[in-house]
Amino acid sequence: MPPELRHLRHFVAVAEELNFTRAAGKLFLAQQALSSSIKQLENELGEPLFVRDTRRVALTPAGEILLPRARRLLTMADETVAAVRAGTPDRAVLRVDISSSNLETGALVLRRLREDRPEIEIRQREIGVPGGLVALRDGELDVLLGDAAAAPDDVAVEPLRQETVQVMLAADHPCAGRSTVSVAALADEVWLLPPDEVAPEWNQLVLRHCQQAGFRPRRYPGTTWGPAAAAELAAERRCVVPTNAWLTVPDGVVFRPLVDPEIRFPWSVMWAGEAGEPVEALLAAAQAMVHERGWSLPAAQPEDGDRSTQ
């Protein structure tokens, strides 16, 4: 018998949080009920999905295989329910990945799109550039925002913004009082970076500039999900967090531009095939934000050749 959708939804929540207590809170479930649901799913599949001990929760190989497929199934289920409830199968829908909803660039573009075109139904995902490029080509995603260096030739690219990368520090960090922070000043710190499989383009950018400053950063050994968890680690002085600008600054942390060398992140809009009306609307919203905010544009991607070498 195939797993129930609710069991898959519970599994994804635990996989994203890697913490049963936080996942239970996110789902508004008792922790015991969540543990029981995961156990039922593991029994149905005949494989353990998590390694659990007193210190950590981690995915097993079977869990790693299930996670992307469970996400796709849940997305399809949600889209099916939304279409039935809307009763308008021809309603304009835009499936978009803006990297992270707390980052300023994508959030401002979507805000402008909602203001200009409220009739478009926006379905936002956060799967990262590697997974997003696959989803574009498989027809599961309409638009992807991020670094387009790895985009294949059959993915269209529109440069959006060249953004100075910042570092999130505890408000009482010795560098917090500076207007800018040199990369070398953080050589002895622990750096929080996303998993390589989720954001390799980001990690390569940061590591390359650290090496230019004469060191290889020590990476924080764990992972986080969402801005609140990253801000909490930074506020506790457990790590520093290279990041792009956020819409709001959490309590206990500050953001400072990284310099010497300055790190610039090239945002682009990516889509596959002919741009439909919802994609064109997002491109118009993006251009409006470029002009209103005075964003500097990254160099356009070459039409020929391997973008990954640029």
UniProtKB/TrEMBL annotation:
Keywords: DNA-binding, Transcription, Transcription regulation. The keyword Nucleus does not apply. It comes from the Bacteria. CDD domains: PBP2_LTTR_aromatics_like. It holds the Pfam family LysR_substrate. Gene3D superfamilies: Periplasmic binding protein-like II, Winged helix-like DNA-binding domain superfamily/Winged helix DNA-binding domain. InterPro entries: LysR_HTH_N, LysR_subst-bd, WH-like_DNA-bd_sf, WH_DNA-bd_sf. Residues 3-60 form the HTH lysR-type domain. Belongs to the LysR transcriptional regulatory family. This is LysR family transcriptional regulator.
